[in-house]
Input
Amino acid sequence: MPGVTIMISDTHEKVKAAHLRRNAYLYIRQSTLRQVFEKSESTKRQYALRQKAVALGWPEDRIIVIDTDLGQSGASAADREGFQRLVTEVSLGRAGIVLGLEVSRLARNSTDWHRLLEICALTEALILDEDGVYDPAHFNDRLLLGLKGTMSEAELHVLRARLQGGILNKARRGELMIRPPIGLIYNAEGKLVLDPDKQVQGALRLLFDTFRRTGSAMATVRSFQRQSLLFPRRVHTGPQKGDLVWGVLGLSQVLRILHNPRYAGAFAYGRSHTRKTVDGGFEIIRVPKEEWETLIPGAHAGYVSWEDYEQNQRQLHVSAQAMGSDRRKSPAREGPALLQGLILCGRCGERMTVRYHSRQGRLCPEYVCQRDGIEHAKPVCQRIPGAGIDRAMGELLVDAVSPVALEVALSVQQELQCRIEEADRLRQKQVERAQYEVDLARRRYMRVDPDNRLVADSLEAEWNGKLRTLSETQQERERQREQDRKILSEPQQAAILALSTNFPALWRDPSTPDRERKRMTRLLLEDITVLREEQITLHVRFKGGATRTLTLPLPLNSWQQRQTSPDVVKEIDQLLDQHTYPQIADILNERGMRSGESKAFTSRIIARIQRSYALMPRYDRLRKAGMLTLKEMAALLGICPQQVKIWDRHGLIHGHAYNDKNDRLHEHPGANPPRKAQGVKLSQRSVTRVVSQRIEEVQCEA
Ligand SMILES: [Zn+2]
Output
């Protein structure tokens, strides 16, 4: 380069005595620790610069080395202590010259770079790199340095873009090698194939099958746990890198596997991206499938078909939704809404969610179609009270189940048998692997020179350890087999059969929890489509394709629901002939009847019902039956009203209470009414009944 020679030629014009009086600063930086170790070559070059400074006239002891930034990235000066110190020294005018390998790399970040140049120009410090000496105060040198800085920055950008671009291009062709998930590996030709380890394959197949059967990731985890089955994992870091480890299956693992399109043989890239956070960390953002960078179905071998994969995604989405709405108002899974997760909106086809309302201490479900509403901020599409629908569906199931009961029972049994065999095969594989490892350890032990005590001892210990694992695995298998046998024992089979034939009884049994009813419903029904018009129409699809259509009247609104049943009103009407309000309340409560609001009756409630249903008041009834008031009676008998009361109490005349204050009307005494008889005790005159134990001696003179 001619420029270089020119600069070197005029080097001596730039270095003045004033520069030499000040220090020389040698700034050394390596981006990463790895570079520090691997590229000691460039470190050597940086130290060689020191010799250049000596040649220019700086004494050895005035050359100060700043190398504290070894291992720091050059992207920003903020946390590079060495660079900060360099800037400080230069700005204090202590630097005559700044030395650096490819000076423009002193600071990659342009702002840092220009600031350093600025300060060098102000304090008349020179800059030296392998190409020559620059004086930032000179226009030409300044221009050159500025360009170098810009180029360096551009280089960083281009480098990154080229890397990223290369990755993207490869990804678009589906050729990018991405670390495959467990169960898939690259073969010698670089093609992704199923892991040849049959045990690993078996575990993955069981996972997908279990999810297909249960439709729930959590149930899949539980199923593995119940059967003490382990799941493989590959170690990606540390000294055991590449090893296969068997551990307990976790929920997040199941979800990761189900969401991973690679298991469906699809190549996918750009499913997530990272974003820098304000506090300097990173966060991972999931990208919706439509926005993935690349998706190539059928790119390689897989465990499920693409259709299965998509079905699984829908299933996971549905269960996530169902769980969310079920949990919103009630304890998880215990909510009584029978059709939760099964009910579809007949208007828009979306799955309907459940809301619970608390009504007199009971949870009343309501099915709401609001998916579209939430998504697009529109009003709710349909809402239908659930109690009536649930009841009708229960009746339908009880009717419909009997003919299919046997079929269900049979298929349940077959499936159980299948699952048990499947699990046993996997356990057998675990035993085989343990046996293989024992053989390996034994061979290793046999091969070692017996004189080499230390090695022989540790190999023997390893062999023993493997033997122990083998026997544990065998025992575990036997234990599980024993348990499986119990599952399929005769009484168990009978119980399964009984369960399905006794379905109606089980369904109606109040002690059957809602959750069980929901599970039974799920077992039998595919889905229910509901449409609310003048009446409610239910289209029911059974598993296996049978369909039924039901129509229900629109449910009563809340005030209608709170009305007293006509039977109760009729009952009260009859009781009013003989009893007062409090008495009627007691009688109805004793018979276990409840008001429209499901409360116990009180005299106030009876009074309200009497008024609102315009039942004839008790007073009128008694009067209609010819009964006399207190005054009329007193006049008839020729005694004072107080005396009438006393006679009534002692049973000489017959009175009937018409209210709860015990105000009374009296039966006509007939042709031969009782007369005043002075001197005779009332207690002796009352023949028929003694109302009070106290003997009233009060006499009233007429
Ligand atoms: Zn809808």
